Amino acid sequence: MTKKTLEIGVFTGYSLLTTALTLPEDGKGEEGSFDFVFVDAYKSDYLKFHELTLKLVKVGGIVAYDNTLWYGSVAQSEIEVVEDLIKRYRNFVVEFNSFIAADPRVESSLLSIGDGLTLCRRLY
Ligand SMILES: C[S@@+](CC[C@H](N)C(=O)[O-])C[C@H]1O[C@@H](n2cnc3c(N)ncnc32)[C@H](O)[C@@H]1O
């Protein structure tokens, strides 16, 4: 059962509260061996956060990265993407997805729900 969770990138707190609602009475958020980390911050920092979260999450724990389809732009060629915000971060997300797919430290899956959610399970 998940007891220790962390969220990187809080705005309204919606996703944090959603996670909190699943915690048992003795669930904690202290530093240490986390069961679950949810990352929804600036996409340019995702690779940096990956190194950090792999230290924080325990072996067998899950790190979830939001927006890894980045409005579908990761499946488009760079020149097809015209909207500024999407264009600005597309290459970071493409690079992140490639890195995660080849990272032997995690087993990962990019779920095509919402704007894409990548689940990584730390293997060692
Ligand atoms: C898309 S919103 C997150 C929404 C969040 N899922 C919620 O329900 O509240 C992204 C948030 O991440 C924050 N953020 C971006 N980069 C960050 C960083 N390096 N460290 C901490 N927070 C960061 C932004 O300020 C913003 O509030």
Explain this structure.
This protein is an alpha/beta fold. It has a single domain (about 5-120), classed as 3-Layer(aba) Sandwich (Rossmann fold), CATH 3.40.50. Helix content is about 30%, strand content about 25%. It is built from three helices and five strands, in the order βαβαβαββ. The chain has helices spanning about 15-20, 45-55, 85-100, and strands spanning about 5-10, 35-40, 55-65, 105-110, 115-120. A five-stranded mixed β-sheet has the order 1-2-3-5-4, with helices on both faces. The longest helix is centred in the C-terminal third of the chain and has 19 residues, at about 85-100. It starts with a strand and ends with a strand. The model has no long low-confidence stretch (mean pLDDT about 90). S-adenosylmethionine binds near residues 8, 12, 14 and 41. Pfam families: Methyltransf_3.
The overall strand count is 5
- Reading side by side through the largest sheet, how are the strands ordered? 1-2-3-5-4
Low-confidence stretches are none
- Mean of residue pLDDT? 90
C-alpha Rg (nearest Å): 15 Å
**Structural class by secondary-structure content:** alpha/beta
How much helical structure, as a percent, in the residues? 25-40%
Reading the helices and strands in chain order gives EHEHEHEE
Known CATH architecture = 3-Layer(aba) Sandwich
**Text of the CATH class:** Alpha Beta
CATH topology: Rossmann fold
CATH homolog superfamily:
Vaccinia Virus protein VP39
* Total DSSP helices: 3
